[in-house]
From TrEMBL:
Protein family (similarity comment): Belongs to the ribulose-phosphate 3-epimerase family.
Protein name: ribulose-phosphate 3-epimerase
An individual GO BP term: carbohydrate metabolic process
Cofactor(s), by name: Mn(2+); Zn(2+); Fe(2+); Co(2+)
The entry's keywords: Isomerase, Metal-binding
Pfam families: Ribul_P_3_epim (PF00834)
Catalysis: reaction(s): D-ribulose 5-phosphate = D-xylulose 5-phosphate
EC number of this enzyme: 5.1.3.1
Gene Ontology terms, MF aspect: D-ribulose-phosphate 3-epimerase activity; metal ion binding
Spans through the membrane: none
């Protein structure tokens, strides 16, 4: 897989969700849906009933980012509902490896997310159980925050670990991804890019998605790890 863009609908109009999803159809690889429970993060967004309705209304695959307590209990239902990718936070999961297997068994790609302060070194064994590692580049909870460049070495380290073990691991970066920050993430090793305000704050969201993808593709082509991106 090459570069993929997953616009975050957190920056869309929640009263017009399906229409706003359509605005990136054909350009976006995924729709990134931020589920927040007001416990794991200090914000409340939407949950399973809204995701179930969205899945019926949109054609783009859905990438659920669960910022919730007790994902061991709640995450499998998002996979069973038909989300193409379900990502839980390792800080909240009682048994990340078991949960990843359950999500995969339900037919979705399994993702594990790390907050900015959570080291990837603590989860090396988990990398073989998941399809995607999400490296958060802001503290989870809100859109429109400033990119934390202290996480760039973690993206690079995650890509080194995946390559060292010959894993086909997608590395997603989420938070403050814009025209100014996407290239440094692609160069470091990310290949799936979440962007909320940079997409939905633009006059033409689909055009913004294509521009971000083009930037990430050219940065990847000249990166240290680009031999990994064939296919
Ligand atoms: C933050 C969310 C992000 C957020 C990104 O907790 O996980 O997906 O919507 O928004 P921007 O791209 O505006 O930082
Ligand atoms: Zn997110």
């Amino acid at each position: 897989m090459g570069v993929q863009i997953s616009p975050s609908i957190l920056s869309a109009d929640f009263a017009r969700l399906a229409q706003d999803c359509e605005r990136v159809a054909g350009a976006a690889d995924w729709l990134h849906v931020d589920v927040m429970d007001n416990h794991f993060v200090p914000n409340l967004t939407l949950g399973l009933p809204v995701v179930e309705s969205l899945l019926k209304a949109v054609s783009t695959p859905v990438d659920c980012h669960l910022m919730i307590d007790d994902p061991d209990r709640w995450a499998p239902a998002y996979a069973e509902a038909g989300a193409g990718s379900v990502t839980f936070h390792v800080e909240a999961a009682a048994n990340p490896a078991t949960l990843a297997r359950t999500i995969r068994a339900a037919g979705a790609r399994a993702g594990a997310a790390l907050k900015p302060g959570t080291p990837v070194e603590d989860y090396v064994d988990l990398l073989g159980e998941i399809d995607m590692l999400l490296v958060m580049s802001v503290e989870p909870g809100f859109g429109g925050q400033k990119f934390m460049d202290v996480v760039v070495p973690k993206i690079r380290r995650a890509r080194e670990l995946a390559r060292g073990r010959d894993l086909d691991l997608w590395i997603q970066v989420d938070g403050g991804i814009t025209a100014e920050t996407i290239e440094i993430c692609a160069e470091a090793g990310a290949d799936v890019f979440v962007a909320g305000s940079a997409v939905y704050g633009a006059a033409d969201p689909a055009k913004a998605v294509r521009a971000l993808a083009a930037q990430a593709e050219s940065a990847t082509a000249s990166s240290w790890w680009c031999s990994h991106t064939s296919g």
